[in-house]
Amino acid sequence: MRKPKTRAALLAGLLLAASALAGVNPPTASAAADPVTVTVNTRAGLATVPDTALGVNHAIWDTNLGTAETSDLLRDAGVQMMRYPGGSYADIYHWKDHTAPGGYVAPGTDFDTFMAAVRRVGAQPMIIANYGTGTPAEAADWVRYANVTKGYDARYWTVGNENYGNGHYGSAWEADDHPDKSATQYARLVVEYADAMKAVDPSIKVGAVLTMPGNWPDGITAGSDPGPWNQTLLSIAGPKIDFVDVHWYPGGTAAESLARVNHLPDATYLLRQQLARYAGPNADRIGISFTELNVDAGRNTQPAALFLADVYSGLLENGVFTAHWWNVHNGMGTVTQVAGQTDYGDFGMLSSGACTEDGSVCQPPLNTPFAPYHGLSMMKLFAKTGDQFVRAGTDEPLVTAHAVRRSNGDLAVLLVNKDPDNDHPVTIDYAGFTPSAVAPTVSTLTNGATGIVTSQAGSATSRTLPAYSLTTLVLRPAGATAGRPAAPGQPTASGVTDRAATITWPASIPGGSPIAKYEVHRQNGAVSEQLGETASTSFTVGNLVPGSRYTVNVLARDTAGRVSWASPPLTFATGSPAASTCTVRFSANNDWGNGYIGGVEIINNGSRPINGWTLTWTWPTGWQQVSSGWSATWEQVGTAVRVTPTTDNRQIAAGGTVSAGFVGAYGGPNVLPTAFSLNGTICATG
Hints:
Residues 487-577 form the Fibronectin type-III domain. By secondary structure, the chain is α/β, with parallel strands linked by helices. The chain has 9 helices and 39 strands. β28 (582-589) and β29 (595-604) form a beta hairpin.
């Protein structure tokens, strides 16, 4: 949690060409010369928007937690889930007597008051059970009171908050009275909490705390734990939990925070890999929530609004079931100027009406919406429950795009201009959708604005995005959409090798005409590549690239030529050959949170010696690198790594091995490579 607490940014991010540094007033915005190309591809389906998507945090130190004015503002912004009792306070809070020893509890913030606010907003609660100073019995009593005594039907319960911050990894901000502060002990007690709480109400969902891939303490093993925090927790408690809870404060300047949103696809991919690897059978039932999000620069000005809309969209399109802003009210921090606006360093999305200690600077009146509140309101206009995200992309890093397709055939597009200095003209291309000639409904949030401006104007294919702005377009389709077949069901992959995979899916329900065939499309950025078509509900895809990640959708086409929505996405990764003339064993050890000691062992499986060798691989992301190496010559250009021998290990005897080591570094989720070539031959991996 942040109240108002900062944590050092531990990771290097991708720097944007233009920065928005606090304390610098930008010049008047001018239009960039070349139009940005935006591509929206409705054939490339992503996740569906759940009814828990848009969330916020409420805290027991906030005197306004239960006021009608606060609740009505949250309702108007479209809030669907509210988290209580407030970050790290959860690990000192005792709900029965409404106390938090060592912290401040405001009047009018007890659990019943919170639930009254939840109901007034029309949201669902997410409740944090006290792990740090509580017990499984206390948590079970809370479930009994909430759902049996009061009938609140509170579904979502998390065991603790940021419990890896209990000192186990060296940094301590989270209360933890247990003598054993290991990840192993947390996991064991999560099992006890889940058992006790579900004994009262088996229908609840119990969540456990994970750390964000690529962020401290991800990758670090401490004490006698069998592995890092996430691995340890999932290996022990995975079968007992229903979701995992992650927080993300990307840190850095406004430009750096906005750039790091591109970490999200790889972060969620790694989280699902960890779930599949460690959490036991049926791990795909385990959901992912991100319940604390905020920035370090521009917390209540336009950078936060841009970040909120961009990160909520990025998480939801990757299947996260809820995203929460920290916080509703929080209080004054350091006052700066950001992009020409006064920023109060306040993590809240509504003003607390506070002043600096000397009274020289005061916030606007209580409950005045800050920029992130308007960013959340923009999300309400953009992504509604039941909409399906579809792939959208641009050719300009300072402009990002997201899109959703609605059940009535409409398409909504969210455009984020992260450039504080320049307007950007854009041209928008649509694949699988033809917009009506009717002017779209356009909603815009500009830098310093006190609200969103909505009109029906302009073109569906071109417009200019103001500097530092959010723009949403809602478009009607050009033709009728009735009678199309339903989208095929969730595809699955089987028989995945280095070069092929078999994709299978539940059949589509016909609309006005019988189903003629199914088309399998691969997402390649915002462009779809058709891999094949079939009249059946299974298709084997060949000619795949070893060690590559693929996301595919299936579409149904009927005999009248009508095409369904895209199926839910399927992501799978090809591996290395089962057998080859070489084997590579890649290792990553002694991880310290943004680097590790890496190694490669090359085995000659052939019957003849190898005289001179070159090993190559490609990093899966742009923020991974070889910092230094030994026992070989190491080179990296872009994401491509090239390793060549020294005079001492040029030859690899038949059946022999050579080894070399390196220091690896990463500035985001560390997705390890899985395909290696030796002298142009793809090796097996061991």
